[in-house]
Records
---
Amino acid sequence: MKQSHSISKFLYKLIIYIALFALAISIVVPVGWVFMASVKRNAEFIGADINPWALPSNPRWENFTQAFVDARMGEFFLNSVIVTALSLCLLLLIALPASYVLARFNFKCKAILNMACMAGLFINVNYIVVPIFLMLTDANKALGVEFFLNNRFLLALIYAATSLPFTIYLLSGYFKTLPKGFEEAAYIDGCGYFKTMTKIMIPMAKPSIITVILFNFLSFWNEYIIAYTLMDGNDTVSMGLKNLMAVEKTATNYGIMYAGLVIVMLPTLILYIAVQKRLTEGMTLGGLKG
């Protein structure tokens, strides 16, 4: 009986490890191939006798320079940095007080607000991007301005607004796990509600806040549909990548195309690899009592 239990446990672990290994290979191999292809010359892509898995014979690092400068990927990169930073600032400025109040205080309409936040989790922003575009277009016509479209601040505001439900859900779940004794001690020492939140509770929620920042950074950085609909000129890096891939594919400059893909992908890869443990840990803690 004991031996059969050990065998079944071993087989279970073996299956899990094989599945994880296959999943890792399916992710690592394409990413590695893109990095390898980004320094290849055009001659290494075209031809019947070309091996697509062959290492670059003479790495062409100029592909990154051409993608970054000639294809304006540097400008698109800067636009994405500005939009992502603004989005995160606006999101935290609204979500932190809202989630703290919903988690730690009882007041009228609290249940309704909680229900509204939970309902927002089931709304895919891609389904409402056209109504958002029409609303902003009507606002431009009504006021006789061109402010509400092709505006990086408005794009950042929309990103932050559409990410509020999940962010509030995650942060309020974490705030609920914190002991009330810290707040009571702060009140005894003369701290008001606002000071208690900013000096005591928010610093204690740092793991969950870091998780929110990282998760939303990945979402904002890679977003395409909203930016494509609302922007025309101040393109983000995802839009620039699409244009670059279309142009370079037509010109058969595949190395430059893959170099642009690496430029877009590298920040998210580095960030995720550096903080993956903290990311999953914060999401687990934040969802305990959500």
---
Amino acid sequence: MQLSLFTDSIHPALAPTNLTSSLHPIHRWVNFIAGYSPEFVSVCIREAGLSSGDIILDPFGGLGTTPVQSLLDGFSCIACEANPYFADLATAKCQAALGAINPDEVFSTLHQLSPYKGELADIYSADALTFLKKLIPETELRVLVNARLKGLKITPDNKFFYKLVVSVILELTSKSQTDGIYKAPTTKKKSNSFQDALLRVESQIMEDFNLITKKQDINYELIKGSAHLLCQKTSSIASLCITSPPYLNNFDYAEMSRMELYFWGYASSWREITNKVRSILIPNTTTIPIDIKKNHELYAEKLSNEFIEYLKPIINELKVRRNQRAGKKEYYSLVFPYFAEIKKVFIECFRLLKSNADIHVIVGDAYLYGIHIPTGQLTLSLLQEIGFEKTQIKLLRNRGSRWIQSKREGAGTPIGEYWIYGRRP
């Protein structure tokens, strides 16, 4: 199979990026730096030759690129997202794609806000408040807090969309730069007042709403929680899977949303972020819960003997290099858990897909203490072991300057991002 994405849509190097999201209604409201393009989703849908009533699956929903674009293209979707903040915003975008929200209620409420007059310590824990004050001027934070409290009175149909709008304003009012994906309190940027941010967000969203038509013959299900919850779904219900799992040692998907997790009250401390969010994410960084690190070798039981034998030398070398390198990060403890949990999710995808249904995966390689982990090829091997047929892999791009090996202790080989394809027999 050769996706026409590589001949008549966008340049293949843009497929695994979010760089075109700013060109698309709804997607541009808030998108994921590690996400892929809406065009990639549309091309996969077109190539699959779907029929009315077909369902698209995404076990790693992120901020909703696959489900939103599926709905915009006229197809229902089932998605999972473990980060509760991402899941809520993806839900809002899906509702918008169906034309199922009322922006007037949301913006009318926000235009009438005044600053919160009470003690901020009555709203937030000491850890959360200390962090938020580093990022947001207190005058704006007090208006934002009142926005959070007023959200309790928003009608249920609009509560997720309200959260999305306030979250975008929250980011615009922040005075701290985002370093890659993490907030850097000591690195300053120009911030907007609450009112200026509100007008900016309202203008963009209302412009997009003029392009949205209400849809009643399709729907979505966005499961807030681990992708393993897909085990509760009936077999053979999806006609296509389009997804991108967390990359090994790429981003801490909990820390990147720390400001929002604190602001909305999903968590009140670093420990709670680990217990409530990291604990249900695919274990891909060294900030994973301690019990996973301690028991990492047990995850090998979920992998084939061939897979284990390939990974063992890598793990052993990572143990050696840990004691030779600054930071002494326990990268070796990620390898078995990461691939075991990824395999578990793709087994569910295989079960949920109908016969002759396609799966499309975007994933990137990794270097851990200079050791190349060919995640693309290993993911292809997992799909083959599970039973997917007609599998193939294609390099889409070599990753950006922050991953150049002179900066990342690599062996000189660029880190690639890959498109992986398979078909359920």
---
Amino acid sequence: MKSVKLFSILALCGALILSGCASMNNTTKGAAIGVGAGGAVGAGVGAIAGNTALGAVIGAAVGGTAGALIGKKMDKQKQQLEQTLPEDTKVETINNGEALKVTFDSGILFATNSSTVSEASKTALRGFGSNLNANADTYIKIIGHTDNTGKVDYNQTLSEKRAKSVYDYLTSQGVSTNRMTYEGKGIHEPVADNSTPEGRSLNRRVEIVILANEKMIQEAQQGTLK
């Protein structure tokens, strides 16, 4: 599994302020946090994102004026992605507006029990890769998930292979390996009830988290981020 030293650069935030912030855009959310607002990291941030484990991936928010500028940048990228990706792809803001999460249903990307990116999905992934290349000052974390049907070990391996396939395809589209990581979570992070077909469908997914890199954060703190 590939790993890159990505997430040691984010400052402290206050997650308690964020209840009731769902209607805010990213700029407003970033400004609302404040640099010294508190110490909620990891699970607290992940809970806001709708997935507790994502907190460890994302880290704490920057906040303050810098956070507002990062949020504004992410708002713009979100709008671009919504225009580029298929309608059944979910693009949402997380981490108080300072990051994005793009969720592909595995059925969009792969045939059943396959980890090979389907021909039908390559157009969407090409558009996604172009967007990532146009917004270069970010890190990308690709995370594969499955439902709980079948053996745990099989699903773990399948989720890893699917994340790796997306990683490889984005690499083929010119997205730098220095800014991407991937991993598989198998059955362990469901977002819906596995006892129903609808729930299992939601759990079979690939999540791609987009985070500001050191350069973007530094420019935001200096007030020069555009």
---
Amino acid sequence: MANNKKIGRTGFSAAKVLIYLILSALAITIIVPVAWVFVASVKENSEFYGNPWALPQGLHFQNFVDAWQTANMGSYMLNSVFVTLLGIFLLIIIALPAAYVLARFKFKTGKFWNVMFMAGLFINVNYIVVPIFLMLNNGDAKLRQMFGAPFFLNNLFILALVYASTALPFTIYLLSGYFKSLAKDYEEAAYVDGAGYFRTMFQVIMPMAKPSIVTVILFNFLAFWNEYIISMTLLTKPELKTLPVGLMNLMAAQKSAVQYGQMYAGLVIVMLPTLLLYICVQKKLTQGMTLGGLKG
């Protein structure tokens, strides 16, 4: 019996060691490239022609200044901040009530809307960029005939609206799953106290759903901030482009003489907001992925 326990403990320890080795290898494959981008962003261009893995001889922060000025990335960053925040705002004010209603109330067309939103999960946004562009372009053509000016293309608000629309299926799916896990005791207690449906949703259910809402905001922030294809298609004016498109402009401006330090500095400018956001909401994100409502 003692030998069996010893063998069981040895097998369990070996399994734990194997799991830790796999997790460590995965962590290294993620951390090393990110760290290397930060290190490369403060190197002088001449250092890249020697050993690219060598540490920088000094901190060449001029790369960030050059990247900011060469590709006009300051203006592009403001555009990205505006589009991302507006897209998340539109998404939340639409998705939260929709997910709550679909999760908590029964009505005739409820199953139909659930199926429609579930079907949206299987649509790759990149495949419908051309139809979206043609639809907006045709709308602008009609507006030119009627009012003499377009509206839909080269409009940051429309881009944010497209972002929010394409993110609705996943967001409603995630939020409705969380709402279904909450016990109905909370709502029944609120109804007894005289609260209506809207007051119950905003003052009782929404505060309880904070971890799930933070998870949705983080996922969609990453998606909107790093999105490239839709932004490049719907925004053709240089002054309206977003940060990922601006980074491509920086690379295109250096075709004749590549400045690696500036390019990596541009990558850091794009990555830094998402990394800082993740660090700030890491605990809430973990809760949003694991928490439910009352147990038992």
